[in-house]
Write a structure and sequence with these properties.
CATH topology of the largest domain: Rossmann fold
Structural class: alpha+beta
Largest sheet: 6 strands, mixed
Radius of gyration: 27 Å
Strand content: 15-25%
Number of helices: 12
Oligomer: single chain
CATH architecture of the largest domain: 3-Layer(aba) Sandwich
Distance between the termini: 81 Å
Length: 449
């Protein structure tokens, strides 16, 4: 069966006449990777082949952001596909082939997600004056001559379309990517670990294909823009292209709190901040949410420990766990796992640590009398208050109910109707102190029934 497939792809290639077929890549080592035929579950045939399209003005684009131009061209082609053109590239818009024409507004994402989507990557790129595209085409017919003829017609039309894309659009998208890369590289000199540009749109639209927030597209309909509260002193940033934008800068070693009621977009904003490691095409909404690449996320969970150090948080270990806080052996609890993640991030000199209360071990974040009695756990809130020098990373923490942790922050915002509002932490600490005193008095004076 495999031999027949290989014979069919060879016959198709032998009958293709277009000069755009990238025959240099049709090597033995690339067979079944860059060029192959695969029978699909619906009985159709998927033919994958590499092509190359030439435009001399590609040479004038800034190479530092060239993947922006590649992504722009691919998305323009997909726009046509979704209108019914170039139907071979979509299997006539069949749902099972959605990955071939699903929009993608993310480039340079280091996560292995969306690998089946058509986007700028190591197979689809611009080098010098050449645009290299790996086309996945769907055919009803298994006749090599018919397939080759249809490929020649398709590629001819694609070339005409690619040549007509205005250079100014390619340049604009290229500079968009350069702006993001350049600002990310300058964060350290600016004393920042993250920048959230005013006008950013963090909310995402999830589809059957794009289920992860890092690769999901902008939310349709109402998508509230981020605007820095004036009390937090929005900063001005000059971009590579000379334009100036404003936004919120998260400083090195800062403890920044994002709080508010449920379903106000707190976790969404944190996910957008994490996504700031990636570069985004114009229209994604996160183009100017720029985050250091030295970022770590701490969450609860379980793991097998083999000598890990959690001594920053734990003074003693629970029964059943071997070793000592500096060298732990056994199945770790959620708080132990999270403690290790934070301590590892600090030890490896991460610039930024992200924490979301919804995915956290609460007893590790805030002090508790019982946890101190029984577990010997020193909370993150205690460390912030008493051993701040040990926290060499910045923290962005999302919380809705951990008032003590909020009070430990350096600066804070709360989200209301999905808009960022300033939280006066000095006032909050005073009010929280009064609340605790009153609550303590009530508890102390409470009579047993």
């Amino acid at each position: 069966m495999r031999e027949n497939k290989f014979s069919l792809i060879d016959e198709i290639i032998s009958r293709i006449k277009t000069e755009h077929l990238d025959r240099k890549k049709l090597t033995k080592s690339n067979k079944n990777k860059l060029f192959y035929v695969a029978k699909q579950a619906d009985g159709k045939l998927k033919v994958t082949l590499p092509f190359v399209f030439k435009r001399e003005d590609f040479l004038d684009l800034n190479k530092y952001g060239i993947e922006g131009a590649t992504g722009h061209i691919i998305e323009r082609i997909k726009d046509c596909i979704r209108r019914g053109d170039f139907s071979i590239l979509s299997g006539n818009l069949a749902k099972r082939y959605e990955a071939l024409y699903e929009p993608v507004t993310v480039v340079n994402c280091d996560l292995n997600i969306g690998s089946d989507l058509w986007r700028a990557d190591r197979y689809n790129y611009i080098k010098n004056e050449n645009l290299h595209l790996l086309l996945r085409m769907i055919f009803d017919d298994e006749n090599a001559k018919t397939i080759a003829t249809e490929i020649d017609e398709l590629v001819g039309k694609l070339n005409e379309f690619i040549q007509k894309i205005p250079y100014k659009d390619l340049k604009k998208e290229t500079l968009n990517i350069v702006n993001q890369k350049d600002l990310r590289n300058r964060l350290d000199k600016l004393g920042l670990v993250c920048f959230i540009g005013d006008g950013s749109k963090p909310a995402r639209e999830y589809t059957r294909i794009r289920r992860h927030y890092r690769i999901a597209g902008p939310k349709k309909g109402v998508n509230v823009e981020f605007k820095t509260p004036i009390e937090l002193n929005p900063i001005e940033i000059e971009l590579f292209d000379g334009n100036v934008i404003t936004g919120l800068g998260i400083k090195k070693r800062e403890i920044f709190i994002i709080t508010g009621r449920n379903a106000q977009g707190k976790s969404t904003l944190l996910e957008a901040i994490e996504s700031g490691q990636d570069d985004h095409l114009i229209g994604d909404g996160r183009e100017y949410i720029i985050t250091t690449n030295k970022v770590s996320k701490a969450t609860t969970g379980t793991m097998q420990m083999n000598g890990q150090d959690i001594s920053l948080f734990f003074q003693k270990l629970p029964k059943g766990i071997k070793g000592n806080p500096k060298k732990v052996y056994g199945t770790a609890s959620g708080s132990m796992t999270m403690a290790y993640q934070i301590q590892r991030a600090l030890n490896t000199k991460m610039d930024l640590i992200l924490i979301d209360e919804d995915n956290s071990a609460v007893n590790l974040l805030v002090s508790g009398l019982l946890s101190k009695w029984f577990e010997g756990v020193k909370s993150l809130a205690e460390i912030i208050m008493n051993e701040r020098e040990k926290l060499t990373s910045a923290f962005i923490i999302v919380t809705s109910s951990l008032d003590l942790l909020t009070a430990c922050g350096d600066r804070a915002i709360y989200l209301e109707d999905h808009e960022a509002k300033y939280l006066d932490l000095k006032k909050f600490r005073r009010e929280l102190g009064k609340y605790y005193l009153n609550l303590g008095t009530e508890l102390y004076n409470k009579k047993e029934n």
